[in-house]
């Protein structure tokens, strides 16, 4: 029996391994035949071996495995379970993950920074106002460096502070200043956990995209029983590893695929001072651009004037008017996928006097001479329809439809009339959606209409990216 076959039998055999890795058994048989495991499966094998508590170093030396590249910041708070975070540090060290540790003042009543420093073989950070740390690794760097911030154990106190935006020590300041994924593993007395204040903080944090590794139920160190026990460190470790594996496997999903995204409003000038526009913030389009960039797509973002930070992607083109947006979209063709999320002005407004005389567009219209102003409207060309019906039509064309009534019906008729592949229809009545962080949509294709619950625009972008990924093979991409 060769080494690879021995390893596979250690991990449960061909069938079980195929099942766990979501592969055909024939792929595993092939590995056995070739006595080789493909490099891109090493991380999954390592993760599985840790889950099964099987030592595979003899067959696939851990040192030779590609390192899990994620950076983790562990924040230890002052709970009775603080000592269990030491086991977490040991597990992360075992797979040579890049780990920094921060301890709150209360955590230091339970375990010492010296112990943590020794285990992690690295300085443990404790002080927001340390002159030495501020010059070398300041609090903003600590907040920005990690891919994941794990707070374990997370106290009721830190949950309350983060939910309310308090930043009165190093841990809470980092949590407020970070863009990283935040995962909390709370642990506390059951009454504290069930207290309506903690419940409300939990809900606020969940809504903001913070993730929780839920506490276990059982007997507590304080002698009481109920929900609030710190989960086994191994379980927390596995949860974090699967987070990392998931994002690593997504990282190349759209590799080699070009995606053109429009976002934000457009502006139609009335004179050099005044303009007509709409309430689009650009948030949904920016979230989609961010998510698809993360997954390896070559994203070009064409955006109207917005007041939010420009996301990181291959190329960003800023425009003002609907005409400019159409011109720039056309110039960027061909592209594999087009996603039109911009709220493009449907009309240009040409100001006129009551006698239909036009104004000099280079000068401000004077109020004193013009009691009444009239507007001639000129229809702008529909970007989505124009491109979807052109010779350079991208393989997948996706449009947004902002409606104030009959959202689903109007979305469907746009799908047909504009000849697009997917419509994301949303209800923008009563000022809903525009500028908000949340959205509720209908996802419409020629055969189905899915209603998605109200959720963050980030979450919609994530799910939409999954949806588009499922379409790639159908559209020969
Ligand atoms: C012996 C002892 C055990 C504690 N255990 C917990 C706990 O498990 N969970 C919790 O939320 N708070 C616990 N506390 C209360 C926290 O230590 C306290 O709320 C503190 O302010 C938390 O600070 P931090 O969030 O900055 O770490 C405990 C306090 C003591 C004295």
What does this structure look like?
This protein is an alpha/beta fold. It has three domains: 3-64, 434 Repressor (Amino-terminal Domain), CATH 1.10.260; 71-250, Rossmann fold (3-Layer(aba) Sandwich); 258-471, CoaB-like (Rossmann fold, 3-Layer(aba) Sandwich). It is built from 18 helices and 20 strands. The chain has helices spanning 3-10, 14-21, 25-34, 42-52, 85-94, 113-120, 131-136, 139-144, 156-163, 170-176, 190-194, 196-207, 233-250, 283-294, 322-331, 383-388, 407-417, 457-471, and strands at residues 71-76, 98-103, 124-125, 148-154, 181-186, 211-212, 216-219, 225-229, 258-263, 268-269, 275-276, 298-303, 315-318, 337-340, 347-352, 374-379, 396-403, 422-427, 438-444, 449-456. It has an eight-stranded mixed β-sheet with strand order 13-12-9-14-17-18-19-20, with helices on both faces. Strands 3-2-1-4-5-6 form a six-stranded parallel β-sheet, with helices on both faces. It has a two-stranded antiparallel ribbon with strand order 7-8. Helix 9 crosses helix 12. It starts with a helix and ends in a 6-residue tail after the last helix. The model has no long low-confidence stretch (mean pLDDT 91). Flavin mononucleotide (FMN) binds at residues 77-81, 104, 106-107, 155-158, 187-188, 192.
């Amino acid at each position: 029996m060769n080494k690879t076959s021995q390893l596979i039998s250690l991990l449960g055999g061909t069938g079980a391994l195929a099942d766990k890795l979501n592969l055909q058994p024939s792929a595993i048989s092939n590995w056995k035949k070739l006595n080789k495991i493909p490099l891109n499966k090493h991380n999954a094998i390592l993760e599985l071996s840790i889950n099964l508590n099987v030592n595979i170093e003899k067959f696939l030396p851990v040192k030779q495995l590609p390192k899990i590249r994620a950076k983790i910041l562990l924040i230890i708070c002052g709970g009775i379970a603080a000592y269990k975070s030491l086991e977490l540090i040991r597990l992360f060290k075992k797979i040579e993950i890049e780990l920094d540790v921060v301890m709150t003042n209360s955590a230091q009543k339970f375990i010492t920074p010296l112990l943590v420093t020794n285990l992690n073989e690295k300085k443990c950070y404790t002080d927001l106002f340390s002159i030495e740390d501020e010059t070398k690794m300041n609090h903003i760097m600590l907040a920005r460096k990690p891919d994941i911030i794990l707070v374990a154990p997370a106290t009721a106190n830190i949950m309350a502070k983060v939910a309310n935006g308090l930043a009165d020590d190093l841990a809470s300041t980092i949590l407020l200043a970070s863009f990283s994924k935040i995962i909390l593993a709370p642990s506390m007395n059951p009454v504290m956990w069930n207290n309506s204040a903690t419940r409300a903080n939990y809900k606020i944090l969940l809504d903001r995209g913070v993730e929780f590794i839920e506490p276990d139920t059982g007997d507590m160190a304080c002698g009481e029983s109920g929900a609030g026990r710190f989960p086994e460190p191994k379980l927390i470790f596995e949860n974090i590893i699967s987070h990392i594996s998931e994002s690593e496997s997504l990282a190349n999903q759209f590799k080699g695929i070009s995606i053109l995204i429009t976002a934000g409003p457009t502006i139609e000038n009335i004179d050099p001072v005044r303009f007509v526009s709409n309430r689009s913030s650009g948030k949904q389009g920016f979230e989609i651009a961010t998510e698809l960039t993360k997954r390896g797509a070559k994203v070009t973002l064409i955006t109207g004037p917005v007041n939010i930070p420009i996301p990181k992607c291959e190329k960003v083109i800023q425009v003002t008017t609907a005409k400019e947006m159409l011109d720039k979209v056309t110039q960027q063709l061909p592209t594999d996928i087009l996603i039109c999320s911009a709220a493009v002005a449907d009309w240009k407004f040409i100001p006129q006097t009551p006698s239909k005389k036009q104004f000099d567009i280079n000068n401000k219209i004077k109020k004193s001479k013009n009691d009444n102003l009239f507007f001639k409207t000129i229809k702008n060309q529909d970007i989505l329809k124009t491109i979807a019906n052109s010779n350079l039509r991208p393989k997948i064309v996706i449009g947004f439809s902002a409606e104030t009534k009959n959202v689903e019906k109007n979305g469907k008729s746009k799908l047909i009339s504009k000849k697009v592949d997917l419509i994301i229809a949303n209800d923008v009545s009563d000022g809903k959606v525009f500028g908000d962080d949340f959205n509720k949509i209908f996802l419409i294709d020629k055969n189905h209409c899915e209603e998605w619950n109200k959720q963050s625009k980030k979450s919609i972008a994530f799910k939409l990216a999954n949806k588009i990924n499922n379409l790639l093979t159908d559209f020969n991409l």
